[in-house]
Amino acid sequence: MLVTMTTAPLRKDAARNWHRIVEVGRRFVDEGTPIQLNDVARAASVGVATVYRHFPTPEALVETVAIPGFEALLGQAERALAGDDPYAGLRDFLYASVDALLADASLSPVFAAPVNVLPHTAELKRRLADLSGRILDRARAAGAVDPGVTQDHVVPLMCGVVYAASVHPAACAEDRAAAGRRFLTVMLEGLRVRAS
Amino acid sequence: MLVTMTTAPLRKDAARNWHRIVEVGRRFVDEGTPIQLNDVARAASVGVATVYRHFPTPEALVETVAIPGFEALLGQAERALAGDDPYAGLRDFLYASVDALLADASLSPVFAAPVNVLPHTAELKRRLADLSGRILDRARAAGAVDPGVTQDHVVPLMCGVVYAASVHPAACAEDRAAAGRRFLTVMLEGLRVRAS
DNA sequence: GGTGAAACGGATATGTCATCCGCTTCTTCG
DNA sequence: CGAAGAAGCGGATGACATATCCGTTTCACC
């Protein structure tokens, strides 16, 4: 048995259609159009079965659409970890994450989903959890963060901040981003180590 | 349950069916069963049309199911406002709210929904927003809360805390409640007035 | 350019949602 | 009391969304 099937080589037409579909998925996500695979097929000028073959569920498509944003976030995390100031690294990473989650609607569902339902991004999520945990640990070791907060809390807290921003009745996307940053500020203050 | 009737009183059989339906709705919410009005009808031994007549959408049923929990929360808010310590009032009210939102799954969707899509609880939401605003104002006036935080932020922040707890991978409901309280603690610390 | 495998597409089966309308039950009033 | 009609009932059924199947086409390789 072959060791790895991670990269099955796609046929030329399959690759073309895959791209078309992901492109349409990206557009739908950006426009807020609900991802219905039939509609995606029509918009991509592709048969329904082709869409279902590549992406069995809407979630699978959103997951694929989310990958570039996800990788950008990983880059941010690595940069935060490479910097000199532990607390600034944590802070900047969290601000960047909240901005990204609010700017790209495909990220939140992937973040919030349990790992097993979205196997494709599982590895990315694992790496991001690992990196954000190390960012937090470093800030805690530097005495900048309350010891009671652990790495398991970072992703949920971020999701909570983003959700709070989306609940907040705001006219435009800019207002939502502003609300998100404000809520994150509150949370960051809450994470600070207590003087008392 | 006490529900103010703005329109004519229901006929006897209609009232009986209404009760059956709401009861089933409550059970479905507690069990996490998705609210599909056809299923509700079958479980309540009632025709489909009867369900649709009383509750045009699943949200409308959830809304009605949420009312008792909502009123309990209003009671908490009034108690918090009647107490002596402004900050303790805010803190206790928020803890009670988060506990309630995590214990009763019907509350979150009603909280998060824009007002106009759920007209029935609009008045309750208005009253709760008013009370929580006054609780916050009192705490701020006492110098216990950062002046940058306004009453518009309270409900979104609470929703965010609850959402964070539900994202947090937790085995049982107790763990989720514990996570919610921890997240609320972080948030409360973030709300405290800054030393700088 | 011939061959087998992979991929395609859309007709259609399956499942869900919500309405319509003939029938039943309740209330009112003579 | 009992007739009349208003209010409510139920489930068959049409409208709509989702997902699969299979005959046809395209591609990669020889």
Word description of this protein:
The structure is a homodimer of 196-residue chains. Chain A has 196 residues and is mainly α. Chain A has two domains: 11-56, Arc Repressor Mutant, subunit A (Orthogonal Bundle), CATH 1.10.10; 66-191, Tetracycline Repressor, domain 2, CATH 1.10.357. Helix content of chain A is 69%, strand content 0%. Chain A is built from nine helices and no strands. In chain A, helix 8 (154-167) runs antiparallel to helix 9 (173-191). The termini of chain A are far apart. The model of chain A is unreliable at 1-5 (pLDDT under 50). At the A-B interface, helix 8 and helix 9 of A face helix 8 and helix 9 of B. Chain B binds a DNA duplex (30 and 30 nucleotides) through helix 1, helix 2 and helix 3.
Secondary-structure map:
2 copies of one chain form a homodimer.
Chain A: H1 12-31, H2 37-43, H3 48-54, H4 58-82, H5 86-103, H6 107-112, H7 122-141, H8 154-167, H9 173-191
Chain B binds a DNA duplex (30 and 30 nucleotides) through residues 10-14, 17, 36-38, 41, 46-50, 52-53, 56.
In short:
With 196 residues, the first copy, chain A, is an all-alpha fold. Chain A has nine helices and no strands.
Radius of gyration of chain A: 19 Å
- Distance between the terminal alpha carbons of chain A, to the nearest Å? 61 Å
Shape of chain A: elongated
Briefly note the structural class of the backbone of chain A: mainly alpha
Overall structural domain count of chain A: 2
Order of helices and strands of chain A: HHHHHHHHH
CATH topology of the largest domain in chain A: Tetracycline Repressor, domain 2
Oligomer class: homodimer
Stretches with pLDDT under 50, minimum 5 residues of chain A: 1-5
Organism (chains A, B): Nonomuraea fuscirosea
GO molecular function (chains A, B): DNA-binding transcription factor activity; transcription cis-regulatory region binding
Domain Transcriptional regulator SbtR-like C-terminal (chains A, B): 85-193
Protein name (chains A, B): TetR family transcriptional regulator
